[in-house]
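Run log // design_07
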């Protein structure tokens, strides 16, 4: 599977890309030990438990990205923590940060979403972010 280049599909219309299992659209309480967060809905593989949330205050069926394994979720948290620190500190405007980071990843800015990245791209992104002031280089 490759990183996404456009809006993700509704994941319950195809098998899980990791294990071939059935993907279902359910309450995210299923993955958060009985507690709901955000809009309360997600896609989850019934077999390997890869999951992804959905857009909207009132849940839509539009996924935030690709189904993510636990490793990928941890990498996304790491990437966002480091990336968000740059723009939240005021060092750079958020939109400019995405444009610069997309260029570093060699992808169009419209495709620069950590939720759209496969594991290898998340690992590469984290390495770039760990270089320190990546937006100045």
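design_07 sequence
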């Amino acid at each position: 599977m490759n990183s996404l280049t456009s809006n993700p599909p509704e994941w319950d219309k195809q098998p899980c890309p990791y294990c071939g299992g059935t993907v279902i659209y359910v309450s995210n309480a299923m993955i958060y030990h009985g507690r709901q967060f955000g809009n309360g809905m997600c896609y989850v593989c019934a077999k390997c438990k890869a999951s992804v949330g959905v857009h909207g205050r009132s849940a839509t069926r539009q996924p935030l990205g690709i189904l993510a394994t636990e490793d990928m979720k941890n990498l996304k948290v790491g990437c966002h923590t480091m990336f968000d620190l740059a723009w939240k500190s005021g060092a750079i405007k958020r939109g400019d940060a995405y444009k610069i980071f997309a260029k570093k990843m060699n992808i169009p800015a419209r495709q620069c979403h950590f939720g759209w990245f496969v594991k290898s791209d998340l690992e590469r992104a984290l390495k770039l972010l760990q270089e320190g002031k990546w937006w100045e280089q």
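The mean pLDDT is 93.
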